[in-house]
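Researcher: If convenient, please comment on what follows.
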Amino acid sequence: IAASLLMAIAGIAWGLYTLRGKRSGSPLSDTGGNFILAALPALIAGGIALPQSEPHPEGIWLGVASGALASGLGYAVWYRALKGLTAVRAAVVQLAVPVIAALAGVAFLSETATSRLLIAGTAVLGGIGMTIFGGSRRWK
C-alpha cells in the first residue's frame, strides 16, 4: 500500500509540474531552477546514505549525466512541447513515456522485446492514439 501511495503522489506531482510548465516562458531556465531547488534535498539524502555506501567516481558522473543532462534536457523539451498541447492531451501523451523508455531499452541496451512488452506497448499507444485522434466520435 505504501508503494501505491508513493506512486499516486508522484503522479499527482508530475501532473502539477506539467500544468505549471504550460505557463513557462523559459523552459530551460525554469527547469534549471527546479533542479537547483531539488539539489539540496538530494545532497542531504546523499550525505545520509554516504556512510553506508562506497561511491565510485564513474557512478557519480553517470548519475549526474543521467539526472542533470538527460532528465534536465528532457524536462525542458517537455515544457516546450506543452505550448502546443491542451492539458488533457498533455496528460494522455505523457503516458507514452514508459513505452518509449522500454523500447529504448530494447534498441540501445539489448533488453528483450517480450510479447508482454509488445502487447502492453501496443495497447498503451493504441489508447493514446484513440484518445488524440478519435475526437468526440463515440464507439458504436
In short: The longest helix spans residues 57-82. Helices lie at 2-21, 27-49, 57-82, 87-93, 97-109, 115-133. The chain has a mean pLDDT of 85. The two ends are 38 Å apart (CA to CA).
